[in-house]
Amino acid sequence: CWILILNFYYLLLLNASSGRSFSDAAQYPVFPWIVSPNLECRDLSLPMGQLSPKRAKHYDETFNDTSPPYFYGCHYSLPGVIFWFLMRLPPFNFFLWDLNDGWDNSKRTFVSVSDAYISASSTNQTDLKELLPECYSVPEMFINVSNLSVEQPNVTLPEWSSNSPYLYTSMNRKFLESSNELN
Question: Which letter does DSSP use for residue 119 in this model?
Fold first, then answer.
C-alpha cells in the first residue's frame, strides 16, 4: 500500500527538483494523464503529442521541416492552462478573469474531462496539456464552489465516476499510485 502512495509524492518531488513550484504559474507542477476517460491506460513512454498516429506524423514532419528542429510550437503547461483547469477555485478564477479581461469564450472553458483529454491527445494540434496535481487531490476543482456565473458551472466527468468529483479524484489518484509506467 505504501509503495502505491509513493508515486504521488515521487511526482511532487520530481516537480520540485526540476524547479516547478505551486507559487509560480509559469513553472507549475505537472502530472501526466494516466488513464483516458474511457479507462484506457495511457502509454506513458509517449508525450501527449505522439499518442495519436496522425498527430505524431504531423509533429514528426514539423521537426523535419523546421530549423532549428522542434516538435511542438506550444507547451504542455502554461499559466493559461493552470488557470483554465482551476478556474472554479480562488485565486485561479481571478487570474483567469484578469488574463482574459473577463470570462473567456464559453467554448474554450474547461467543462469536460473527456473533451480535454481528446483535445490534448488527438484532435487539437495546439493542445498538449498534461494534468495538475489537483486533478488527483482536489475534487472541488470540478465543482463551481465559487458560484461563478458561467454557462456550465460544473465539469462533466467520465461515466465511470458517476459524475462525482470525489469518486473521480480518488479513482484518478488510485490509477496514478498503481501505475507501473512512471519513470
Answer: I
